Please model this.
Amino acid sequence: MSETLSASMAAARPPRLEFDALYRTTCADVYAYVAQLVGDAATAEDVTALAFERAYRKRRSYDAGRGTPRQWLFSIARNAGLDELRRRKRSATLVPDAGERVAAADGTEADDVGAERTDAVRAAIASLHPRDRDLLALKFYAGLSNAEIATTLGISESNAGTRLHRALGALREACS
Amino acid sequence: MMRSRPNTDSVDDVLDPAIQAELDQLDAALRGEPIEDDVLAAIVRDVQATAPEMPSDLRRQLRHDVAGGFAKGGARGRASTALGRTGRRAGATGGSRRRTSFAYGGGLAVTLVLLVGVGAFLTTGPNTKSLDLGDDAAQTMSAAPSSAAVDQAQESAGDVAASAAPNGAQAEPMSAEAAKSAGSSSGAVARGSSSTPATGQRRVEQNVLMAVEVKSGKLPEATSKVEDIVRLGGGYVANSSVSTQSRGAGSATYTLKIASSQLDRTLKRLGDLGTVTNQEQSSRDITSSFDSVEQRLGDNKEVRAALLRSLAKAETDGQIAALNRRLADNRRTRQSLESQLARLKTRTNLTTVALSLNAPAGDAPSADDDGNWSIGDAASDAVSALGTVTGILLVGAAVLLPFAILAAIAWALYRVRRKRSRESALGD
Model:
């Protein structure tokens, strides 16, 4: 009887955020997304660390009814990244050094053709509007669903789908 | 490959089927599933290949921080040192500091608002508090006028006595003048004066101050009984003031005129209305004043008789006119003396009673409380406490509501502004 009661109480209790598991499954994606958002590796490291720290401190305020833990975390990371971009706009613009620019991991360019292709795609992404880059990063690197993207951006799901379609079209054109 | 151009302007809830199909294929490609759109598949592959990889030192550092619960100066501080980007870090973390400051500032503001609200509430006070103060004030007020009434009554006796003195002084020369004018009759006046004996009865004016505490909520009943008791005592209510408050509290003050012969019985009846908390009785012997007025009145009558006799013997018109003037003066003096005598009789026949009735509030222990705890007392206390707490909460909510609304509006505006500001970082 008591086991049934405790089980039902546990079921009624809101799910607890397993922060360690969340970190393990998302850290690489958060860094990739933030790096794409802010544009340089050094700032990306700072913002990534800041995002996880903010998420950790706010973990008790996480509300499962307002989104998945992954979407919640990427919202925090996006806000941290946007804060950094905004700060750059206010102060002297920090132009990342060429050596600091975000680069794919060493060893992924197995051959020259592949390297050229990667550079072309990177250049195509860089040529996109920042909003489109943000949207594609949320899709490709953060791995969010359209509904999660909509929640993160504070727009409707259909609006998010439409914007994603436009960004994808722009990327197609840039890659062609 | 020819692609039909979908409607991308619509942001309705339902996506264009072509867009939806493309997004479905995108999701499938991201999951690693084969899709029909080869170009899209290649783009997905290439974009994923360009994904920035997390540096291993950052990964180690973050893992350590997560395991350590981001202790003070954790991820940011250590990462700054390790990566040597303190300057840039300051920029990245400045916002957090600002937000923390904002949070502290907001908390401080809310605390101040709460303190102001509570202070205002305590200053203005709930009804119950003012009622308690009112009780004290009522008690003080009930006692003060009563003492004043006694003093006033004593002073009034003095005034009458003093007023009698000038009249007496006026009457004395008049009687002498009348005696002189009456010639041989003056002896009769002197005899009359000396022959008017004092009655030997003592004339005493009494004043009573009485305070009675009645049970909570019983004040209206007691006030109605007061009038009946006074009527039975052959007196009347000269002055009254009744003040009722909530929770059965209230006070009443009376100035009563009671037949002195019925005083003891009446005071006992008044005391039976509740518990006598104070009773003071003072008396003043006004026999001398009384006798003085009576004697002067007797002299006045004798002078009048002498004047009438002289008038009967008067032969000239001048004598008749002079005697008539003196008779008129004599009549006015007599009327004044009779009025003084009537007032003195009233003061001796009727006793002034300054009565104050006080009913405490329901939760205050009454004077006749037996002091024993009972379930009823506990329930009464609980209900009273609940009512007080509810009142405090309601007043507090009323005070804080405008501040809360303003704070909510400010917070909403701040969030909207922050969101717009963030989004503007992406450029338009």
Remarks:
- Chain B is about 65% helix and 10% strand.
